[in-house]
Amino acid sequence: MSRMAKELQETYERVSYEDNHSVLLYINQQTRNYDTHWHSAAEIIMPIENGYTVFINNRNRTYELNPYDILLIPPGDLHTLTAPPTGKRLNIMFDLSVFNSVEDFSTITPILSQPVLFSADSSPAVHRTEVELLNKITEEYNKRSETMRISMIYSYLLQFFVHLGRQHVRADVRFPDVSVGKQQEYVEKLNNVISYINTNYAEEITLEKAAALAGFSKFHFSRLFKQFTGQSYYNYLNERRVKAAEALLLSPHMSVTDVAMQSGFTSIATFNRVFRQAKDCTPSEYKNYYHRRSRIR
Q: Which residues span the domain enclosing 183?
C-alpha cells in the first residue's frame, strides 16, 4: 500500500455541514493541534488573535499565518494545523462544486488547484476587501433564523473568488513585458482556452489544438500558458482530468475503467500513472477507501 493510501485511510475527515447545507463556519479558539487530515471541502483559515501554523503535507509547504492572513486550502490536500497557546481563528469549509455552473468561474479554477495566501503585505487592497467579505459571511452565518442566509453566504463567497481571480489574472502582472493591448488580448485568449478545457477535458485536446484555439504557435502558446497559470499546459489538463476523476470515483456504480474514459484518459495505464503522481495512490485505492469509509459511517 502506498504512503498516500495509508494516509487516506487514517486521516479522512468528514465535514458535518449544519442544516444539510454545504457551508460550515466556526470560530476556533482551541489550543489543540490537528494532526494530518484531509476533506472534500475547500477550507478558508483566517487567524483573528495570534498566529496559526498550517503545513500542507502533499506539497511540503509550511504557512506561518499572522492575524488576518487568509489561507485557502483546496479540497483533498493533506494538512496539519498547529495552534498557539492562546488564540482565535475563523474557519470556513464549503463545497466548491456549488460554483461549477457559474459563468466564467472556470477561469478561477487554475488558482484553486493549490493553496492561496492573502496578506496585507502582498496585496493590501485585495486583502482588505477579502477580510471584509469574510466578516460579512460570518455575520450572515450567525443569523440562524434568517431566510436566504445560505444564498447570501454563497454570494459573498463568489465575490471573494471574483476578487481573487481578478488579482490573479491581472494582465499587467502576468504579461508585464508587452503592450497594454496585447496584455488584454493574451488574457482573453488564454481564458477562452481554459474555459474550453474545463468543459471538454474528456476529449483529446492536444497542445497543438489548444494553441490553434488561442491563435498562437505551439511554442508561443506553451510559454504564455505557463506564464498565465503557473504550470505547463499538459500539467493543467491532467490536473483537471484528475479532479474530474476524483468526483467520479465516489460513485459506487462506476468502474475505474469507466472513470478513466469519462475523465479523458485513453488508457488505464496512463490513468493510473497520472493519478498516482497527483494523489500518491492509485484510483482503485482512492475509490475503495472512500466506499469502505461510507459503509462504516
A: 175-230
Q: Are 24 and 18 in contact (CB under 8 A)?
A: yes
- Do residues 68 and 118 make contact, with C-beta atoms less than 8 angstroms apart? no
Between CA 275 and CA 64 the distance in angstroms is 30
Neighbouring-strand partners of residue 70: 118
- Strands 88-94, 61-65: parallel, antiparallel or unpaired by DSSP? unpaired
* Low pLDDT (below 70) residues in the chain: 1-12, 18-20, 58, 104, 106-107, 168-174, 176, 178, 180, 290-297
What pLDDT sits at residue 187?
81
Does residue 290 sit in the same domain as residue 210?
no
159 and 124 within one domain: yes
Look up the pTM and report it: 0.72
Task: Give how far the C-alpha of residue 34 lies from the chain's centroid of Cα atoms, to the nearest Å.
Answer: 21
Q: Which amino acid is at 178?
A: V
The reported pLDDT for the residue numbered 100 is: 72
Give just the sign of the alpha carbon dihedral 116, 119, 122, 126.
Answer: positive
**Three cell numbers, residue 66:** 499572522
Does 142 lie in the same domain as 249? no
Query: If DSSP codes are grouped into helix, strand and coil, which group holds residue 262?
Result: helix
Q: How far apart are CA 61 and CA 40, in angstroms?
A: 20
CA distance linking residue 266 with residue 202, whole number of Å: 9
Q: Where a domain ends, among 195, 212, 230?
A: 230
Q: For the range 283-289, what are the long-range contacts, defined as Cβ-Cβ under 8 Å and sequence gap of 24 or more?
A: 283/245, 283/249, 283/256, 283/259, 284/256, 285/1, 285/2, 285/4, 285/5, 285/8, 286/5, 286/8, 286/246, 286/249, 287/249, 287/250, 287/256, 287/259, 289/5, 289/8, 289/9, 289/12
pLDDT digits (tens, 9 = 90+) for 246-286: 889 888 889 999 999 999 999 999 999 999 887 778 899 88
57 sits in the region (left: phi over 0; alpha: psi -120 to 50; else beta) called alpha
